Amino acid sequence: MSEYTLAASAVLLAVAVLAGVRGAYRRPWVWIGVAVFAVLTIVADVVLTRIGVYRHRSMFNAGILIDRMPIEDLLYGIALYLVAVLSWTWPARQPHVE
Question: φ, ψ for residue 41 (rounded to 5)?
């Protein structure tokens, strides 16, 4: 397993646990957002690799592919989406006023 696979998996695991602790999974829009983001990520990545904008070298991923897209791209993308959700829903610190 490559470093990119381990890093993407570790980041997704950490963010997923934090999202669970923060109760993000109780909100239906989070699940809808994850699904929409995953579909858009897959479509964009597959199209861009098919038309030759970029390509992935197999030595840098685990070899699990969705068409030409390594699964790590999807794992990392979902982790980024969850970070954005947590950032948006995290309660703001109230300034201390005396």
Answer: -65, -45
Residue 47: strand pairing partners:
none
Q: Is the pTM of this model over 0.85?
A: no
* Long-range CB contact pairs, 34-40, < 8 A, 24+: 34/78, 34/81, 34/82, 37/77, 37/78, 37/81, 38/74, 38/77, 38/78
What's the pLDDT tens digit per position in 41-73?
999 999 998 898 887 777 777 788 888 888 888
Sign of CA dihedral 19, 24, 28, 30: negative
At residue 97, the pLDDT reads: 59
**Distance in angstroms (rounded) separating the CA atoms of residues 17 and 10:** 11
